[in-house]
Amino acid sequence: MPRRYAPVSLRGRLALLFTAGSALVLVLAGVLIYLDLNGQLQRTINSSLATRAGDIEGDINAGRVAIRQEEAFAQILGPGAVVIDSSAPAPAALSAAEVARAAHHDLFIDRRIPHTPALGRRARLLAHPVPVAGRGPLVVVVGASTEAVFRGRERLALILAILSPLLGAILSAGGWLLAGAALRPVRRMSQEADAISLAQAGRRLPHPEGEDEIAQLGRTLNAMLDRIEAAFARERMFLDDASHELRTPIAVLRAELEVALLESGDREALERSLRSALEEANRLAHLAEDLLVLARASAGRLPLRRRAVDVRALVESAARRVNGSGNRAADVALKVDGPTARAVVDPARLEQVVTNLVANARRFARRRVDVGVRTEGDDVVVTVADDGPGFPAALLPVAFDRFTRAEAARSHEAGAGAGLGLAIVAAIVRAHGGTISAANGPPLGGAAVVVRLPIDETGPVPEPV
């Protein structure tokens, strides 16, 4: 069927498919019924003819070469189609050649016998050989009318021609109603989905109970709505937190610039205001860069310039640079341990990962931060641990979410960030095809962050240049 003539609705297509299947079944059933009935009638006639021929053969074997009076039509023929006896005044029903063939085996012939009312316009003949000692083989011919068979076949064909379309129409209507009943839950879900908006949090699609395909579809769509709602909630939270984080440095920057304008005559006060404004501008620039990294990572477009590097050497260099940059360097002992481990990574991004993790660990450590590097199978594993208080229990499940910080770090005291450090670390690690996890406990009893990076996600590790 051309596509332009196909039904638009799924219900219509299902009903059409059901109708076509029903029509095919009805045609096949009608043909089989017709063939079976015709075969049964043919076998009945043949059996009746064989029984009659057998009775006449019995008479001949008993010495009575004659046709009984009750026979409708029967003949006894000799060689050359000579009529020895006949139930009705009629010429030989078979030709000499047919008699010669029938002398060796039974022969069925459909033929009209003229001037024989008992056989009508259609008849079937059975020529049966009967060997007779001293006379040669005789041929017994018995006949029966096939008018009843013909009329029965015509009547059956007429009945099938009338009932098949009627039954097909009934089945088509049943298929239409059945498709409508089966798709009614889908229609309700479609209407409800069309009415759902973002302002109606928690509204879900109705679906039938059970384990059928419609129920599974409803549960799958509702689970998808749950994920979409959670994603929108995270985006709203992200916008709220981003607005909050941007509002404070912008307000400080504006205030410092206003102070600078008011104290234009005091060079030292002006310099302090400008330096403070510059710090806030740098903070805004870092925050904007962090947000850009997260946006690109979420879109799968975080650029990575991969090359073969010694992860152990890179981690040690970045960790020691971070440890020596703050005023707590003398208070916190840093230890980097592990064998040489090579991997194809973006060295700048990996350094950013190590910098953020070590800075975060050093901020909360009491006396010690350990950084370990090792290989496990096809992965390079970097562990950053400290002996501080560890992650708050409520923070662990969302430690790598954006703008996630401990409550104590919600202020903007020196060293407090915007809560994007671990989120950026996780985004970079995942962009490399790796995994990251956070826990409290071993090896130092505080926080421990474990980063797993594939040694080579794209092929053999090239030699460093």
Features:
Beta-Lactamase, alpha+beta, rod-shaped, single chain, five-stranded antiparallel beta sheet, Heat Shock Protein 90, five-stranded mixed beta sheet, 8 helices, Helix Hairpins, 17% strand
End-to-end span in angstroms? 65 Å
Percent of residues in β-strands? 15-25%
Main β-sheet, spatial strand arrangement: 2-1-5-4-3
CATH class of the largest domain: Alpha Beta
Q: What number of domains? A: 3
* Secondary structure: helix percent: 40-55%
The major pleated sheet works out as:
5 strands, antiparallel
What does this structure look like?
The radius of gyration is 50 Å and the shape is rod-shaped. Helix content is 50%, strand content 17%. The strands form 3 sheets. The chain has a 5-stranded antiparallel sheet with strand order 2-1-5-4-3, with helices on both faces. A 5-stranded mixed sheet has the order 7-9-10-12-11. The chain has 465 residues and is an alpha+beta fold. It contains 8 helices and 12 strands. The model is unreliable at 407-416 and 459-465 (pLDDT under 50). The longest helix is centred in the N-terminal third of the chain and has 52 residues, at 10-61. A hairpin with a 6-residue loop joins strand 11 and strand 12.
